[in-house]
Write a structure and sequence with these properties.
Lipocalin, 187 residues, alpha+beta
Length: 187
């Protein structure tokens, strides 16, 4: 099951890079001073959710950071690889090159669907109340800890959350899926 978490984190990192910065534009100030002050600074990825499976970037071996600049530019760094984009704020929606993120208090939520693979990522400024991952875990989510020490119940929950075609999208081969099904069938 650790393989699953690693695969999920790689998918999230790849999708983030493609979706958020598919088109990188030139920079000219496109945000108000008020919005610039609110958003400026580093926003670290706090929690990732894929098919109801949640993990922190550390658990997935990923480092994802958004650096909002007051001039309307945005640097995204994923495992040391940096891309630059522009951003705008309209109400509680932050848009970076066509990709919308929702601002809620001190948290920034990004929902993307990459080829039928639904993902949600939460970002927060370091040290803020929003930087605590546990607050984003929903009832019924499978955690890294659940997958690290799988039980028949964990396997059943995984099969309920991830559709058959989703298993392949997560990179799980047929023997691994079969092993999960066998574990789920145990009492």
């Amino acid at each position: 099951m650790k393989k699953l978490t690693k695969i999920l984190s790689l998918l999230v990192a790849a999708s983030m890079t493609v979706m958020l910065f598919a088109s990188c534009g030139g920079a000219k100030k496109s945000v108000s001073d008020e919005d610039a002050k609110l958003m400026a600074g580093r926003w670290n990825a706090v929690l990732c959710r894929v098919y109801g499976i949640v993990f922190t970037p550390d658990q997935g071996g990923q480092d994802m950071v958004l650096d909002f600049r007051e001039d309307g530019t945005l640097d995204m760094t994923v495992n040391g690889s940096k891309s630059t984009s522009t951003w705008k704020k309209n109400g509680d929606t932050i848009t970076a090159d066509g990709t919308a993120m929702k601002l809620s208090g001190e948290a920034l939520r990004l929902d993307i669907d990459e080829d039928g693979l639904p993902m949600t990522m939460y970002f927060a400024k370091p040290g803020s109340a929003a930087a605590e991952p546990k607050q984003y875990i929903e009832n019924g989510d499978l955690t890294y800890e659940d997958l690290s020490d799988p039980t028949p119940e964990t396997a059943r929950r995984l099969l309920e959350k991830v559709p058959e075609e989703g298993m392949a999208k997560l990179g799980l081969d047929a023997p691994t899926v079969e092993m999960i099904k066998r574990l789920a069938a145990m009492k």
